[in-house]
Each structure stands twice: as structure tokens, then as C-alpha cells.
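agent> Task received from the user: take the single chain below, predict its 3D structure, and emit C-alpha cells. No templates, no multimer pairing.
agent> Plan: (1) validate residues, (2) run structure prediction, (3) serialize to C-alpha cells, (4) report one or two observations.
agent> Step 1 OK, no nonstandard residues flagged.
tool_call: predict_structure(input=
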Amino acid sequence: MKVNKNWKVITFKELIPGRLTNLILSHHIHGVFNIINWYGVLNINDDNFNQSFNLLNDVLQNASLHKEKVVIAGDLNMITNANLKGSSLTTQDQTLISWINQHNLIDLVPYNPSPSYRQHDSKGICSKSRPNHILVNWIDNFTNWDFNIKHLHKGIATSIPIQLQSSQPWNQKYNKLVISPKIIKNKHKLINKLLKQGDLTQFDTVANNFNKVIQKFGRPVKFTNALLTDDRRFRIADYKHKMLRFNYKYNRNSNDWKKHDEWNSATLELAILNSIKHKKAILLQLLRERKEAFIKKVNNLQTKTPYSFVF
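)
tool_result: status=success, residues=311
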């Protein structure tokens, strides 16, 4: 994924060491993207097998409630098409297919005639399958392809079309609704009635009920992330810079301008230039600190197979 000014990294979490990571990105027009990297287990009795599905259920349910996009990519060690493998589906495969259907996910590369995994067993028989997948929770004009890498698996990729232009001004963009405690107190009976409508054993029904309540009683709140310039060091430097500019402007516009010698004016100009350099140096330092923190977090991943991660 190519990073640019339109994207902001919200958070990066390692849900299961060496198995499951979650990168959350925010786009100023298209909202939040949950990028999941999943390295599946081979044994259905492994504790990580059920734990992976449970954690992903939480991510998908939260994404459905907030209308976020989800991309799940990686070597799942499970297939969704028996024709490639040449044998019947295993219990793991059937579990994955059932789970995909349950959450209305789309497997972008399930039936590519080119397998993404080849290996000869002890009898010399070549096993061909596609255990690598890219799953998404929305329909779009995706472009998918694979490529060879220095492993038994092929790399798989997809292109997600993102329209970067929007007729909607940024200052009118809202992606968060909040219901005030006062409204909840005064309208709690009606809210409870709306939340209890339909078959509450179905998650989509519960999510739609919540959405109706939020749309009816919520008010839009502008979503803003913490800026790099919110650091105390930068604010102090910016304040000093503004004071220097104010003093310089006052001297230039003063009726007593001729009484101020050139040395004093030149000193102020030099001080202003130095304050600009100081602000830039602080911003570069803040950027380095943010980058170092991110690299440290990635380097602390508890995994012996770093190639299995897409980040």
C-alpha cells in the first residue's frame, strides 16, 4: 500500500503473536479501513484456530456497526475451492467457507486456475492449492493478480479503486454521531423499543437497530485526529515566532520607524528566520519520533516468520 497525505495511520495491533495483526487506516473521504494480516494454523485443534475466528468476529462486527471497510489477507492454510486441491474439503476448509458466508465476505482470489502453493510430498505427488486469500466486506471493481516470490507460496495482490476527489468540502465531512446523555435519559423508552425490534439473534438486525437509533437521535461530530503540531515543544516555538513577527510588524508600521536603527531591524529579521528554522527542526524531530515508535512496535512482533506479514 502506497502511503500519501490522504491516509492516516490510526493504530497497529498484534492480536495474536505471529498469526494475526490489525492495521487501521483512515482516509479523509472514504473513512476507516481495517487491514488484517492472517497467518492461519494447520491444525484445527490448535488454540489459535478458534481464537483467530473469535477476534476476527469482533473486528467484523465493529466494522459493520461503523460502516468500515475490512481487508483480510494472508496465508490462511485453508482453501475455498476443492477443484484446485483435487480432494474433498477438510474440516478447516469448511469452517472457513461457512465463516465467509456468515459475514457476507468476498474471496477475491478463490478460483484462479493458477495455484498459489506447490509442493511434492514424500510420494512425489505435487500438491496444488490456493491457501492464500484476500477477503473483503464490500463490492468494488477490484483488480487481482499473483506473482512469484522466493517461497513455496506465490504472492497475491489486489488493487482497490479509491476516488481521491470529492465535491464535498472537508469542513462538511462528518463520520461520527453522538447521542447526548440527556436524550438517552429522556428518550430511553423509545430507544429501548427501537433496539428490541426484529430477530435479535441475528447480528445484522441488532446492527440495523443501533443504526436507526443513532441516525434518529445522534448529532454529527467532526472527527479529528491528534495533529503532529499538538506537541508542547512546537506550540512554544510557534508562540515565540508569532511574537517576533508581531514586534517586527509593529516596528515597521510605527510612526517612529526612523528612530529604530538598522541593527535592531536586522536583528529581528534574523531572529524570525531562526525561529522558522527552529520550528522546522522540531517538526522533523517529531516525525522521527513517530517513525521510531512505529518501527519499534513492528520490530517487537513476537514472530519467527516475518515473511508471513504484509506490513
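agent> Step 4: summary for the user.
Helices lie at 47-66, 82-85, 91-102, 181-186, 188-195, 203-217, 232-253, 262-299.
agent> Done.
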